[in-house]
Amino acid sequence: MRPVSDDDLHAYADGFLPPDARARVEAHLADSRGDAERIADYRRINEEICGRYAGVLEEPVPDRLLYAAARRRNGRPWLRVAAAVAWLAVGVAVGSGLGWWRWGPGAEGADTTLANLVRPAVMAHAVYVTEVRHPVEVGRDQQDHLVQWLSNRLGSPLRTPDLSRQGFDLVGGRLLPGSDGPAAQFMYQAAGGERVTVYVKARGRDSGETAFRYQSSAAGTTAIFWVDGPFGWVVAGALPRDRLDAIAHAVYEQIGS
Amino acid sequence: MFEDDEIVAQIPHLRRFARALAGDRQEADDLVQDCLERALQKRRLFHTGTNLRAWLFTVMHRIHASHRVRAGRRAKPESLDESVHVVPVRPEQEARLAVSALQRALDLLPPEQKEVVLLVALEQMSYDEVSRVLEIPIGTVMSRLHRGRERLRALLAGGGQARRVP
Q1: Could you tell me if A191 and A202 are in contact, meaning their C-beta atoms sit under 8 angstroms apart?
Q2: Nearest CA of chain A to the CA of B50: how many Å?
Q3: Count of domains in chain B?
């Protein structure tokens, strides 16, 4: 039988060995206390490193890095910001009693709303929707606390939309740094694992109320957003448009005062 | 090519690796920012369908390596034993001190070894992946991993021992 090498011991500690090689190392470890201790130490080193830096994954990503990730060559600053969300489709008119309207490229305030509301919401969606272990800061088991806390921070009473009729359960929420103040993100998950986020922030001084608007990114995320009363809202998800529509309507109807 | 939100989704992982590599938060985020900017400049070189995270780690590794060359060899940091023996240890401080002992021990590793140890520990990368990301032969990966881990073992030996007053 081939003797056990240093490489084997590392691969064993890291869980990379196939079963037969693993058995060979285990037979060797039974006779070598020193090597068994090495394995235990290697594993402890891995665990300590992971534990020490696990928190970094949960930290809000600084704006300067989001901007760096969105910057395109030859772009003017506003265009760069708008490009962050890599939009393809703009504005679809649907008459469902909500007064949806077409949003042309020259619409007043369009750039500001994109930059201050939609871009950060879609960025936050992209960052947190893939999180398996820490998708939210406060879970739904503390829903009352979550709503109270986010209401206080956003400066107006807020309600958590209930999307169970659309097949989505609340996972929880988190507070985020918005472009000019705090923002909140609620995350929902369907039985099949699909996730949508509902992003809300206090309405900026320069943005008027709007009806529903759509944006979709080339990567498949669609956002529906509107400004209503004290808040701007963004519903984001990689879902067929009719499902996302239903969710946005549900949010709109429930939060309307 | 890749989409902006695909690259954004990788930022937390880039930051974690950079934080462990640089130790300092500011320095780590500077490294991530350089990496993102370079990645966008070179985005046409990325082949769709291959591993974006691995590609970004390669970009970051190259930048980090070039910074090291530019900065020249830094003075050796003080040794672990000298730096920690003055701290009186209360039980609740144990965990925090152990953490800083880990960071100090990592900082004592040559950067080439540290990168390998961190990629395996934090990203659970296979040795083949590490070899591709760092653009070094697999044999070099294994020898750096071995030397790095043995050095860490020695530095962290026995957990509390490093904190004893000599």
Answers
A1: no
A2: 16
A3: 2
CATH, residue B94? 1.10.10.10
Contacts of A125 in chain B (CB under 8 A): 5
B107-156 tens-digit pLDDT? 899 999 999 999 999 999 999 999 999 999 999 999 999 999 999 999 98
Mark yes or no for CB contact A10/B32 under 8 Å.
Answer: no
In a domain, B165, yes or no: no
- For CA atoms A202, A128, A70, A210, give the dihedral sign: negative
CA nearest neighbour of A146 among A171, A125, A122: A171
Domain range holding B97? 77-160
Burial of A60 (0-12, 13-18, 19+ CB in 10 A): middle
Q: At B96, which helix (H) or strand (E)?
A: helix B94-107
CA distance A129 to A140: 16
Domain boundary (B17, B42, B74) is at B74
- Which residues neighbour B93 within 8 Å (Cβ) at sequence distance 6 or greater? B87
What CATH number has the domain bearing residue B45?
A: 1.10.1740
CA distance B131 to B107: 22
Chain B CB contacts of A234 below 8 Å? none
Nearest to B58 by CA among B24, B110, B17: B17
Residue B1 lies in a domain: yes
Q: Which of B31, B57, B74 is the last residue of a domain?
A: B74
Smallest CA-to-CA distance from B5 within A136, A129, A113 is with: A129
Tens digits of per-residue pLDDT, A26-75? 999 999 999 999 999 999 999 999 999 988 988 888 878 887 776 544 34
DSSP letters spanning A198-237: EEEEEPPTT------EEEEETTS-EEEEEEETTEEEEEEE
Specify whether B69 is located in the same domain as B102: no
Check whether residue B8 and residue B39 sit in a common domain: yes
| B82 and B155 both lie in a single domain | yes
Q: For an interface test with B, which of A5, A50, A52, A66 has the most B Cβ atoms less than 10 Å from its Cβ?
A: A52
Contact predicate B60/B31, CB 8 Å:
yes
> What ipTM describes this predicted complex?
0.79
Structure tokens that stand for B57 in this block: 């780690």
Set out the domains of chain A in order of their start, with CATH numbers: 6-55 (no CATH), 62-255 (3.30.200.100)
User: Does a structural domain hold residue B12?
Assistant: yes
